[in-house]
Amino acid sequence: MLDSFGRNITYMRISVTELCNLRCRYCMPEDGVCKKKHEEMLTEDEIINAVRAAASLGITKLRITGGEPLVKKNIVSICRRASQVPGIREICITTNGTLLPALAKPLREAGVGRINISLDTLDADKYRYISRCGELTQAIDGIHAALDAGFDKVKLNTVLIGGFNDDEIPALAELTQCYPVDVRFIELMPMYDSGDFGPEAYIPYTAVLDKLPELEPIDPDGGVAKLYRLPDAKGNIGLISPVSAHFCAACNRIRLTADGKIKPCLHSGDEYSLKGLDYEGMVQELQKAILCKPSWHGVLDAENRSHAGRNMNQIGG
Ligand code: SAM
Known about the structure:
Blueprint: E1 11-15, H1 44-56, E2 61-65, H2 75-83, E3 90-95, H3 100-109, E4 114-118, H4 124-131, H5 136-149, E5 153-160, H6 169-178, E6 182-187, H7 206-211, E7 216-217, E8 226-229, E9 237-240, E10 253-256, E11 261-263, E12 272-273, H8 279-291
Parallel strand pairs: 1-2, 1-10, 2-3, 3-4, 4-5, 5-6, 6-9
Antiparallel strand pairs: 7-8, 8-9, 10-11, 11-12
Helix pairs in contact: 1-8, 2-3, 3-5
Bound molecules: S-adenosylmethionine (SAM).
């Protein structure tokens, strides 16, 4: 379905839970989330009905996210059922990776094709600091489990944070020379309550180009990342610039939150509720949401925070 600016909306991100086993500083508050009532959240059947409704309007690609999607006890069943919905061609998942040793194979068998794993640092102390409680070894074990499970693509997501991990850009990029993975550097977005990062933390994607002059540009693959490659690499480097060079004109996404709200734009407070609706009702509400998708997300920087009205763990990234 085309939105009112002629963009073809083919991609829905579904957050299946707001809960997470980590507490990343840029994503959620230290004390976690104010746990909502079970009745407020979408059931598995409602999620699948939303996928059917979205597919009827032209959604072909899904990304399952959270919170941490792998803490959801029925995650494998959700992925399997979603992958069987007619019209859905691709299911991807974004995870912190810590629970992949047990779940990588079942997710692959359930129809998940691609997997993105968050990895902001290769230093165990810094990992514990940024995630407030995580162990780097668990994330690394998760990456190996994903590689062993044979996903079509494994991507590592690094949020670029000036003064925290810009010194690790070469080491993180080098992973593409050692393993068949893509590494994507994502500019830090100033969310509602996403940590007390000062202006120096908001560095542009060009910081990666400055640190790695040997990067060769390559053709885009239809996604929002600007793509590059290191010499003799097995995977690509992706640079994602929602802050310094937004890509709203090419945005083909909508988002579904775990409490059933369609967000036509990540950084807008506008939401359309699917909770409690039947299939027809969901189709109508999705149509409304797509037609109201704004042309762009507005200015974002250290002074101008997102208008999303939620932290990232309550949207899905
Ligand atoms: N728990 C999973 C994970 O860690 O990947 C999935 C949910 S997380 C919200 C999805 C993605 O959003 C992650 O790659 C995370 O790094 C990114 N993210 C969260 N907050 C962000 C922020 N303020 N700016 C940029 N990226 C952010």
